[in-house]
Amino acid sequence: MEVLLHQIDAFADAPFSGNPAAVMPLLSWLPDELLQHLAEENNLAETAFYTSALPPDAGAPPDNSPAFHLRWFTPATEVSLCGHATLAAAAQILDDMHPGADRVHFYTRSGWLRVDRDRDDLVLDLPTVSSVEIDVRGEVPRALAAALGVRPLRAFDGTDVVLVVTSEAEVREVHPNFSAFPKLHRAAIVTATGDEVDFVSRVFAPGVGIPEDPVTGSAHAQLTPLWSRELGRNAMSARQLSARGGTLRCTLAGSRVRLAGRCRRYLDGVVRLPD
């Protein structure tokens, strides 16, 4: 059996930047155990698998655009939402399969997601992720602050735990001690206002096999409404300060977040599996 493999950098400003995702189109679903092995072998933050066959619970697609069933796996587990791998899957589909289309829909664990083509950008539409402010002196924020070596001003809990610090420089200078990380729902985000963009962040998720994620779309589904409240506007620029780095243009639109960025294809290949 042969399965196509595309590696695409999402939210990439230049070659070798952004967040690399593996995209693997399937004719039909392979066993979950095999999907997990493939994601582990790819050894990227996420591998996106998709098929054109929609599950019965998907219902009708939102419109007549191409529609697919999409799933995401880290090297350790299947996850419920991944922004950058969705953007990468859309880039591959719109380039290779539907070059005349400007929109693609995906049915996922997080419901229907949409990616639109806007000139050179792709715009990912995600549900917002809410945050509740928590005591910065609480057990989890204190443990995270010690593991990350930061002095947070505020802390929030949602899908991810968010620590707000004083400056972009403090975000850049984080040196995590992963052995000291407390158990989390998913990830820890360190964020601050930016020097040249509206806000910056870094994202750490060792519990799901991602010590530091280069650029995290799903984290910005939580950061966008948080910073929109803080800054008093719905359209913002953001940069994730990982070693690779990536830039996102974030818009809060009611209960949805729209994240715009570019994709760069790194490789196309074939994975050969035993029958």
Question: Mind explaining what this structure looks like?
Answer:
By secondary structure, this protein is an alpha+beta fold. It is 20% helix and 40% strand. It is built from five helices and 18 strands. It has helices at 32-42, 83-97, 139-148, 168-172, 217-231; strands at 2-10, 19-25, 46-51, 67-73, 78-79, 103-108, 111-118, 121-127, 132-134, 154-157, 161-164, 188-193, 199-205, 210-213, 235-240, 246-253, 256-261, 263-272. It has an 18-stranded mixed β-sheet that branches. 44% of the residues are buried. The model has no long low-confidence stretch (mean pLDDT 96).
In short, what is this structure?
With 275 residues, this protein is α+β, with helices and mostly antiparallel strands. It is 20% helix and 40% strand.
Spatial extent as radius of gyration: 18 Å
Number of strands: 18
Strand content: 35-45%
Q: In DSSP terms, counting alpha (H) and pi (I) runs of 4 or more, how many helices?
A: 5
Helix content: 10-25%
Q: Give the H and E element order.
A: EEHEEEHEEEEHEEHEEEHEEEE
What's the mean pLDDT score? 96
Give start-end ranges of low-pLDDT stretches. none
Ends distance: 6 Å
**Derived structural class:** alpha+beta
Write the topology of this structure.
Layout: E1 2-10, E2 19-25, H1 32-42, E3 46-51, E4 67-73, E5 78-79, H2 83-97, E6 103-108, E7 111-118, E8 121-127, E9 132-134, H3 139-148, E10 154-157, E11 161-164, H4 168-172, E12 188-193, E13 199-205, E14 210-213, H5 217-231, E15 235-240, E16 246-253, E17 256-261, E18 263-272
Parallel strand pairs: 2-3, 4-6, 11-12, 13-15
Antiparallel strand pairs: 1-2, 1-18, 3-4, 4-5, 6-7, 7-8, 8-17, 9-10, 10-11, 12-13, 13-14, 15-16, 16-17
